[in-house]
Specification:
mainly alpha; ribosomal protein; Large ribosomal subunit protein mL54
Length: 132
């Protein structure tokens, strides 16, 4: 009977060793060639662009959203609408708008003032409610 227990322990030990060797973490080794340029090698592995400078300066690459479409061509500035050039203009902050007289504000700034003031009031009310 003791022999049966010893045999079963041996089987268990062998099974544990097999699991340990399968479960063991290993790391890949290099191929022997050292890469120049420090860590990684993504910059060295990146494919070189084969497009000419003329094509690069006349086409917007990656802007095509259609399956069978082509990338759009860059047009002269006169072909684009006027509002496009004002999208990145700096607009006054709420504090600057509060310092101005409301009666003399242009319509766009007045609209912005009302929107930002409402937003600030809502945030203030929410913080007061959260504290109570």
């Amino acid at each position: 009977m003791a022999m049966n227990h010893i045999k079963s322990l041996r089987v268990i030990m062998i099974a544990k060793e097999a699991v340990r060797t399968v479960d063991q973490r290993t790391f890949a080794t290099g191929t022997g060639k050292a890469k120049k340029g420090g860590k990684g090698g993504a910059a060295a592995d990146a494919p070189k662009s084969t497009l000419s400078k003329e094509i690069k300066s006349t086409t917007v690459f990656g802007a095509n959203i259609l399956k069978d479409g082509a990338d759009p061509k860059i047009l002269p500035d006169s072909e684009y609408p006027d509002w496009l050039w004002h999208l990145l203009d700096k607009r006054p902050a709420l504090s600057a708008l509060r310092r101005e007289k409301i009666e003399i504000l242009p319509y766009e700034d007045l609209k912005r003032f009302v929107k930002l003031d409402n937003r600030a009031r809502i945030k203030e009310n929410n913080s007061v409610k959260a504290k109570n």
